Amino acid sequence: MGNGNLNIVFDLDGTIIEHGKPLGSQKAKDIVRLTSGCNLFFASARPIRDMLPLIPEELRGATFIGCNGGQAWKNGDMIFSNQFPYEEIGPILALLKTKSTPYVIDSEWKYSFSQKNMISRVILNHYQILEYLRKTSLGMALLSS
């Protein structure tokens, strides 16, 4: 992709990706043509590992922004991946279990989820969890222990 000053960002789901299916060849050709000389970005709430299969090889030189800004990837390299500090994981999981909240934990290339029946999947971003922990007495007790 180009080194121009213009940045062009495409959201995936519901914008250029429909029903979770990979980007069609005509759309890919149109994006290549329209973004020539520009900096191309693809953005999604999905983690990078779930974005890559949707985008054809000819567009993989773009920068990918995943997890609602929590990850960035370009040319095979993870530029950054925001994660909870190790010492905060235990209190967060304890809180989720106390509240019987189903959860999904994402890392750069793997994921894990709670054993609880997930009628509706709850995916929490780490800023939301930390904000919740800071505002509740249970959270303050967990964070200070």
TrEMBL record:
Domain of life: Bacteria
Gene Ontology molecular function terms on file: hydrolase activity
Keyword Ligase tagged: no
Keywords: Hydrolase
Pfam assignment, any one: Hydrolase_3
Keyword Transmembrane helix listed: no
Protein's name in the database: Putative hydrolase
